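Hello, quick one for you while I still have it in my head. A protein chain has come my way and I'm curious about its shape. I'm sending you its amino acid sequence along with the C-alpha cells. I'd be grateful if you could look everything over and explain what you see. Here's the protein in full, and shout if anything looks odd to you:
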Amino acid sequence: MHLRADSATISWEVPEGDVIIGFSISQQVMCSRRFIREVNTTSRACVLWDLDEETDYIIQVQSIGLYGESQASKRVHFRTLKKSDRVDKSRQLQTGEVIIIVVVLLMWAAVIALFCRQYDIIKDNDSSTGKDKVKPSSLASTPEHCSGGLLRSKVYIDE
C-alpha cells in the first residue's frame, strides 16, 4: 500500500498463538540478485525506502520467535510508480486548491462590496438628515471653564 516512485509501505497479519519478538522482511528486485533483509521489531508494517522507480520488487516476511524464525510468507510482487505519475496527481490537487481559494476570495469580495454599498446608504441617509444639526458645545468639557473641566474640580468665582 502507499506506493510511490521511491518507497512503498507493506503490512502483514500475524497468526494467533506464537510468541513473536520481531519480524524479518526480505526485499528483492525482480530479475536481479540484489537482496535486502531488514529486521523490524514489534511493528506489523514497514516502509521500504530508496526504491527505484518503475521497478518490480518481491517481498517476503518472516516472524522471529523465541525458538527461531518461521517459514517465509508467500512472495508478494509490486511495482513502484513513475515519478511523473506522482507529479500529475499533485498538479491536480494544486488546481483544486486554487479553485477553492478563488471561490473564497470572490465570496469575500462580494461581502465587502455589499458592506460598502450598505455603508454608503447609511452614510447618505445620515448626512441628509444631519446637515442642519449642530453639536451642542459642552462648557464643562474644557479646563478653561470654571464650572468643571477635565478633573471635575469645583471652582467658585465671586463676582
